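ok so for the tutorial part 2 we go from a plain amino acid sequence to predicted structure tokens. step 1 is just haveing the sequence, like this:
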Amino acid sequence: LTSAEMEVSMKWKLVLASASPRRKELLQQIGAEFQVLPARGEEVVTSTEPERVVLELSRQKAEEAAERLVELDVCGKEDRTAAAEESSEGTILLGADTVVALNGQILGKPRDKADAVHMLQMLSGTAHSVFTGVTLILQRAESREMISFFEETKVFMYPMTEDEIAAYVASEEPMDKAGAYGIQGKGAVYIEKIAGDYNNVVGLPLAKIYQLLLKSGIEIL
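step 2 — the prediction. this is what the tokens look like for a chain of 221 residues:
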């Protein structure tokens, strides 16, 4: 076997450092086996540029999850998860963060319904960008490698009437979504087209993650 083939044959644990149900569903969709160990720490951002923000936040999530795994293994003071119990050749810690940006302005999750209405009024009939930052920490017994990147997808929305916006906000779907809409839910009817990776808008650029890991000799499926 070549070194690359030996790496592919190794058993790796995949740990998702996110509580996002959408990211969990995307990984389940492709048949990946993984555990969830969401970050708990306070998010610290030093930039206002969307691509830098998502990179910073994804890195913080992955690094915190890596530290928590060490604590679980060494101290055993928390309830031990499957992510910390099984031995393996290595662990992949996956941190991700997604933001919506309109003309460089980041639109996070709406604070309340009025904020959701305002965001949708801004996005109605326009094109905006969705950025997802991803950090992969490849933790081996004697080494650690970090891979970070961001993916951008352009989203073009149809014009929305005031009544449509009010009804959509009343559905509650926008309230836990960056930019106040869900492309995989009821919000799909207001999306004219996209340029880029659809899954990136949902919250995780699966294809790029898979291809990058494959180049490192790691198969997650």
